[in-house]
Design a protein that fits this description.
Blueprint lengths: L4 E5 L4 H10 L6 E3 L9 H10 L2 E4 L3 H9 L7 E4 L11 E2 L8 H7 L2 E3 L3 H15 L10 E7 L5 H8 L9 E3 L8 H9 L6 E7 L5 E8 L9 H11 L6 E3 L2 H5 L15 E8 L2 E8 L3 H17 L3
Parallel strand pairs: 1-2, 1-3, 3-4, 4-6, 5-6, 7-9, 11-12
Antiparallel strand pairs: 7-10, 8-9, 10-13, 12-13
Helix pairs in contact: 1-10, 4-10, 5-7
Length: about 300
């Protein structure tokens, strides 16, 4: 079997650069790179996509759709890191730990949509609990999350690391129109019956995410408890390399959550906190790791292992 040829379309952006750095020294694949003069040329990009075995798209949504439309070679497989296809019925969602069959679906898929950074945390917390019936599908879910400024892409890096960095805000809440593009993705892949209320923010740190979801136990049922919620998550992710569920005794000892504690890893850390009839679900991970490049490489590894 020949060495798989991988083309990263958009390898100069924050996610694309991270993926390239992770793949450039690997001996089990070859990277196809365009001459810098042709990176924005549609014809050369289309030729590269159709010449590779797997294309990883690190592009804005419209450009990702155009790239997919340019594919004529039926053997080309695609991992799309944009949000263009995350709720599309014909694309496989690239969250390998989402359920017991998802890694196999990814491995055999020709079209894989890489999860969004915030949805990785939200879905990671919610989906097992909804599947187990511990949280009803019609629960009024609120998701609060803070990401490092690299989550804004190159514009965020320029804002905080460029010549006007001194004027960059220490903290900014956005998505105030409540129509953030991640909302349908979170609802669909968590199994929610209604749109969650999603409040995202950027902080003055480069990378990392802390995401929290509050729950009121009296709305969940008479037998609901923090221990049952925690046990469900621990059982769901038992044996998973890239998802950790912190023991409740360790969570109780925490007095704060550092969004950067999982930086430079591809792991998602989940926690459950409680007081009386209130529970707080929490996720901490690297928005450029498990929230982007790490997930893309994880999906690529699954797909390479199951090459036709």
């Amino acid at each position: 079997m020949s060495t798989p040829l991988v083309f990263i379309d958009g390898d100069q952006g924050t996610t694309g650069l991270q993926i390239h750095q992770r793949l450039r020294h690997r001996a089990d694949l070859q990277l196809l790179r365009l001459d810098p003069r042709y990176r924005k040329d549609p014809q050369h990009r289309a030729e590269a996509i159709n010449a590779c075995d797997t294309a990883i798209l690190c592009l804005p949504d419209d450009a990702a759709r155009e790239a997919v439309a340019s594919i004529r070679n039926p053997n080309v497989r695609v991992i799309d890191a944009s949000s263009a296809h995350r709720t599309h019925a014909n694309w496989t969602y690239g969250f390998a730990e989402m359920d017991t069959q998802q890694a196999e679906r990814i491995a055999t898929a020709t079209r894989v949509s890489n999860p969004g950074c915030y949805p990785t945390g939200a879905i990671g917390l919610l989906r097992p609990l909804l599947q187990a019936g511990l949280v009803p599908a019609d629960y009024p879910v609120s998701v609060n999350a803070v990401s490092g400024y690299s989550g804004k892409g190159r514009a965020g890096v320029d804002q905080y690391e460029g010549e006007n960095a001194a004027q960059a805000p220490a903290f900014q809440v956005y998505g105030l129109g409540l129509t953030h593009k991640h909302v349908p993705e979170i609802a669909q892949h968590s199994g929610l019956a209604h749109r969650p209320l999603f409040v995202p923010a950027y902080g003055a740190f480069r990378q990392g995410i802390v995401l929290t979801i509050p729950l009121q136990l009296h709305l969940l049922g008479s037998d609901a408890s923090a221990e049952r919620l925690h046990a469900c998550l621990a059982d769901h992710y038992a044996g998973q390399r890239h998802v950790q569920v912190m023991p409740m005794a360790q969570s109780k000892a925490l007095t704060l959550l550092d969004p950067q504690v999982m930086n430079d890893t591809d792991d998602l850390r989940l926690m459950v906190f409680e007081h009386g009839q209130q529970v707080l679900l929490a996720a901490v991970f690297d928005n450029l790791g498990k929230g982007a490049a790490g997930a893309a490489v994880q999906n690529l590894n699954l797909m390479i292992a199951q090459r036709p």
